[in-house]
Amino acid sequence: MTTKSFFNCSSVKKPHLRNYDQTFKDSQDMITCPIYMSNAYDSVLQLDLISCTKMFDLNASTLEIGKLILSWPNPNCNKCKEKGMKCKWKNNGSNKDEIECYDCKKKVKTIHIPRSLIFAATGSILLGLVLIALFKTHLYFRKKEEDQLRVDKFLEDYRAQKPARFSYADIKRITSGFTEKLGEGAHGTVFKGKLSTQILVAVKMLNSTQGEGKEFINEVGIMGKIHHINVVRLLGFCADGIHRALVYNLFPNGSLQSYIFQPDNKDHFLGWEKLQQIGVGIAKGIEYLHQDFGLAKLCSKNLSIVSMTAAKGTLGYMAPEVLSRNFGNVSLKSDIYSYGMLLLEMVGGRKNVEMSSAETFHVLYPEWIHNLLEGDVHIHVEDEGDAKIAKKLAIVGLWCIQWQPINRPSIKAVVQMLETGEDNQLTVPPNPFHSTTLARRTFQMEVIQE
């Protein structure tokens, strides 16, 4: 029987040992298989096994080339079998007469956790949840308290007829981060907001931030004194750094523009009496502004040419002198022109502006109104009373949009004309275009590039 020695040569970290057996091409790779077997009597120096660790010696009955045949005696396990157990050599068979029994059933390991640790962990989790709930509750009531203070301050200013001042952070909260856009005009964009669940507002973010904040606040102070049933009230403002905003009452039914339809559209047309009431109400609101405040207090002293790109939504209502100083200076009569265009849109149920492209637009002179008054164009009316109202609104509108400001009536005269019961007392202004072939004339203007 031959005794073999087994060595662990993983510490060598080389593909081959420096001995004769390791010189062959197909010899054992000591990196992938670092276990080396030799005869027990071989020299470790000659085999280059100094850096290897001897694992054990094993008696082999037969050793053939490329094959190692091992054999060992079977222990007598009768005693262990009687106990329903397995057996094995004790101390790896150093004493062939000694065996030991063992249970082959796999034992499940259990980890014992002290109850005190379980209670402590559970208590910590519950305490954390309670603290989170308390923190959330605190934040909720603090925000609610801040909102209530803001509303109380607003109501206090409202009763004192003074606009409330908001920070830019307040404006972002009021508009929920500017999520709902209501419209856009020449001077800014309007967003929907709410001061509370009961108070809805319209917030206009102004485009221009030129000028001192003090001047803006002074102008807001003047606007805050405007209180008229036909004028939207200024509730507050923002002058925070470069940010400028105006906060107004929100009318949830929308603007008049969304209710202007052709008279023959019975499902949506408001009716001639209602249109007359709206026209008179708007005129009285302008009259209040002109009498009590005037243009000088509400317009900047450094008013320049309006940018066509920014003002494309309101071009149809702008007087010629607003677009070009060649027509004269901006005055109260500029408001009259805008009002006249609105009246004619109400009569015709259509806008007087067409955007042909991003660079050009057409202001459509409503020559068809003259044709209407001369009987060449007909619109839908229910009775003679409606016809009188339509004719009156058309005549007043034409007077208001005269090219020369001096030819336009004052707003006081406009109110008197609208409230008169006799339309035959109103004379039709001259038609600046005497064309028998064209139903309407257009005036094309190039946009001023910014």
Automatic annotation (TrEMBL):
Q: Does the keyword Disulfide bond apply?
A: no
Membrane topology note = Single-pass type I membrane protein
Its primary localisation, in coarse terms, equals membrane
UniProt keyword Cell inner membrane, yes or no: no
Q: Could you list the residue ranges that cross the membrane?
A: 116-135
Give GO terms: molecular function aspect only: ATP binding; protein serine/threonine kinase activity
Listed SUPFAM superfamilies:
Protein kinase-like (PK-like)
Where is it located? Membrane
> Which residues are in the Protein kinase domain?
176-434
Question: What GO cellular component term, any one, is given?
Answer: membrane
The organism's superkingdom is given as Eukaryota
Residue sites binding ATP per the record: K204
Query: Which UniProt keywords are listed?
Result: ATP-binding, Glycoprotein, Kinase, Membrane, Nucleotide-binding, Serine/threonine-protein kinase, Signal, Transferase, Transmembrane, Transmembrane helix
Q: Write the protein's name.
A: Rust resistance kinase Lr10-like
Which source organism?
A: Cicer arietinum
Q: Which lineage ranks, top first, belong to the organism behind this chain?
A: Eukaryota, Viridiplantae, Streptophyta, Embryophyta, Tracheophyta
